[in-house]
Design a protein that fits this description.
The protein is globular. The longest helix has 36 residues. The chain is mainly α.
Length: 309
């Protein structure tokens, strides 16, 4: 297992290195420059600003200096569009995105896993067909359609819910439900497939032959192995819920990280774009690692394979 962890950490570092390299050169290839504005700025002023941010140095030196500052100083640079340290922007907006992502994940697990188990138990019945049909429809409907519908039919009629805004505990319900609904549909399908695969195994037939009730067969013998595909999906899904929530944050006016990511791209804010990309990449690496560890806990074959490597 120790070698397994070391291998995953090395893979994560390689992913972050590739992500930084691609983002750095794509940001440099973007048209225009970060200091272009409606006001006319003299060439001398632009040169001084570029020198202040270190953008006058050779390309290879800029490529080397930025990760060096992260490692040695813990600095992600200063946003050229906001004039604030990128680390402060992330620290201010990340808790909101994290809360939204956690609530969305709770909705996804609480809805998707029970529906997947129910569909597997009632295989090829009208319950199974109905649940999987609804899941497929939800997967096909984008969040920018679900969000406004919830605003119209729920927020406008249910006391305590607001169409948009952030500040009260109940304000997280509608955006989290909107964000987690698609993940719930994927989890339902993955859980159904995993449970059906386990139910066809010999040890489950043996448990049934011994006279165990259907509930005990599912809970004690099938659920642990059947949830492995869903657990493997949860790691990247959680990171995606945090980093890919720009549309939902915009619809419900949530002050999260998604808005900064898009603003950094439109304003050609290289330091903010690099900082957010690396932070999102780090989240995905960590979530994938946690998902691998949880999969190893559920499936002994993964642990044995990790120990033999």
């Amino acid at each position: 297992m120790f070698r397994f962890l070391i291998g995953r950490l090395l893979q994560g570092l390689l992913v972050l290195f590739a992500l930084y390299t691609i983002t750095f050169f794509l940001a440099k290839a973007m048209p225009g420059e970060p200091f272009t504005s409606e006001k006319n700025v003299s060439a001398e002023t632009k040169a001084n600003i570029r020198k202040l941010y270190g953008l006058d140095k050779p390309l290879w030196e800029q490529y080397y200096v930025y990760p060096k500052n992260i490692i040695t100083e813990g600095s992600f640079g200063v946003s050229t569009s906001k004039g604030r340290p990128v680390g402060d922007i992330i620290a201010q907006s990340f808790p909101n995105s994290l809360l939204l992502g956690l609530c969305a994940l709770c909705f996804a697990v609480g809805i998707g896993v029970p529906i997947g188990v129910l569909s597997a138990v009632r295989r090829n019945s009208w319950v199974d067909w109905s649940c999987m049909a609804v899941a497929m429809v939800v997967i096909c409907v984008p969040s920018f359609t679900i969000g406004p519908l919830l605003q119209i039919y729920f927020a406008a009629h249910v006391p305590g819910l607001k169409v948009a805004g952030w500040g009260n505990p109940q304000d997280v319900l509608l955006p989290a439900f909107t964000l987690g609904l698609v993940s719930a549909a994927y989890l339902a399908r993955l859980t159904r497939g995993g449970i059906l695969e386990v139910l066809s195994q010999d040890f489950v037939r043996t448990a049934r032959a011994k006279g165990l009730s259907p509930a005990k067969v599912i809970i004690k013998h099938s659920l642990r192995g059947g949830l492995i595909p869903a657990v493997a999906y949860l790691g990247p899904a959680f990171a995606a819920l945090i980093s890919g929530s720009f549309i939902v944050e915009t619809i419900f006016q949530v002050p999260g990280m998604g808005q900064h990511f898009v603003n950094a791209a439109t304003s050609r804010d290289e330091f903010l774009l690099l900082g957010l990309s690396l932070f999102f990449g780090f989240l995905i690496v960590v979530m994938n690692l946690l998902a691998d560890l949880l999969t190893g806990f559920l499936d002994p074959r993964v642990r044995l394979k990790g120990n033999s490597e």
